[in-house]
Amino acid sequence: MRAVTFQGPRHVSVEDRPAPEPHARDDAIVAIEASGICGSDLHIYHGRVSVEPGFTIGHEFVGTVLAAGEDVSRVSVGDRVLGCYHTACGTCFFCLRGAYHKCDHARTFGHGAALGSLPGTQADQALVPSANLTLRRVPAGMPSDVALFAGDVMGTGYHAVQESGVRPGDSVAVLGLGPVGLCAVQVALAAGAAPVIAVDEVPARLEMARSFGAIPVHLSEESPRATVKAHTEGRGVDVAIEAVGHPDALELAIRLTRKAGTVNAVGVYAERCEVHMGLVWIKALTLRTGHANVIGHVDRVLGMLATGVLDPRPLVTHHLPLEDAGEAYAIYDRREALKIVLTP
Ligand SMILES: [Zn+2]
Ligand SMILES: [Zn+2]
């Protein structure tokens, strides 16, 4: 079978790999129908997140179950399924408390030895461990361009909003309108947040946030602080979601948030970062961090996708064959795409 492999900074290849086989009783094999390229794949592509050369990458997928071990009970051979971006055991200290994203035995697809040596899903087929937790049936009639989002990007937008304790009528600022930020805008609006203020520098992304119902603010041509003040009687927003993963964005999120509000850093951090703790402390802010507990959210997210309350289809800007992965990554790296879907 063919698989997209990381070779070195800014270099991926499409290579032949042996087809995966189930080992454990709760393993499944999925024939991939569509696999997304994610912002975190770009961190690998840049070498910021290290993965061994030759390792298969990718972690967003929709496909059909080809084989399933005898303990796989929640999906069957022939089912159309979507996957979460990581696995969880279901029985460790953290899983028993519902924190599947912190499972002691979690493995993340396509992230090399550091995250469990689980080959990625930008391939013809993928091995899926802990299939009862990792896979869900795709609701009837749901296109892959929608289902792909449930197990990662929309789940992350959902996590950012839910973990911040957003209630109807809360004001929310979303910083960074990549796919996660745009999904967070949709979830915040669906949760009844008002207003939702969306900050970025790319006009097309601002326009998309506006079309979803947010108030767009250009980071450098306008003043996010002035806009936030104007819409919150000068207080600042109840919740700021930092969907960039950069110290400057975190600093702005801290400044835009009202006293006793919440800042959620859902963007990826892999290195030391200075936080103005004096500001966090004097404002009595709650700072939330970390990647998303998608296994904990996926069923609710699927419900909202199936009913059209959430609709990520405008985010899918490109469909490319798996063979063209090299070109796809280059396009994504040039920020010419929001979500690229690869099809084997
Ligand atoms: Zn991802
Ligand atoms: Zn666990």
List the keywords.
344 residues, alpha/beta, binds zinc ion, globular, seven-stranded mixed β-sheet, six-stranded parallel β-sheet, 12 helices
What does this protein structure show overall?
By secondary structure, the chain is of the alpha/beta class. It has helices at 39-45, 93-96, 131-134, 144-147, 153-163, 179-190, 203-212, 224-231, 247-256, 277-282, 294-306, 325-333, and strands at 2-8, 11-16, 28-37, 60-68, 80-83, 125-128, 135-137, 172-175, 196-200, 215-218, 237-242, 257-265, 286-289, 316-321, 339-343. The strands form three sheets. Strands 3, 4, 5, 6, 7, 14 and 15 form a seven-stranded mixed sheet that branches. Strands 10-9-8-11-12-13 form a six-stranded parallel sheet, sandwiched between helices. α6 links the parallel β8 (172-175) and β9 (196-200). It is globular, with a radius of gyration of 20 Å. Bound molecules: zinc ion (2 copies). One zinc ion is lined by residues 88-89, 92, 94-95, 103-105. Residues 88-89, 92, 94-95, 103-105 line the site of one zinc ion.
Offer a concise description of the structure.
With 344 residues, the protein is an alpha/beta fold.
Record the SSE blueprint.
Layout: E1 2-8, E2 11-16, E3 28-37, H1 39-45, E4 60-68, E5 80-83, H2 93-96, E6 125-128, H3 131-134, E7 135-137, H4 144-147, H5 153-163, E8 172-175, H6 179-190, E9 196-200, H7 203-212, E10 215-218, H8 224-231, E11 237-242, H9 247-256, E12 257-265, H10 277-282, E13 286-289, H11 294-306, E14 316-321, H12 325-333, E15 339-343
Parallel strand pairs: 8-9, 8-11, 9-10, 11-12, 12-13, 14-15
Antiparallel strand pairs: 1-2, 3-4, 3-6, 3-15, 4-5, 5-7
Helix pairs in contact: 5-6, 5-11, 6-7
The structure holds zinc ion (2 copies).
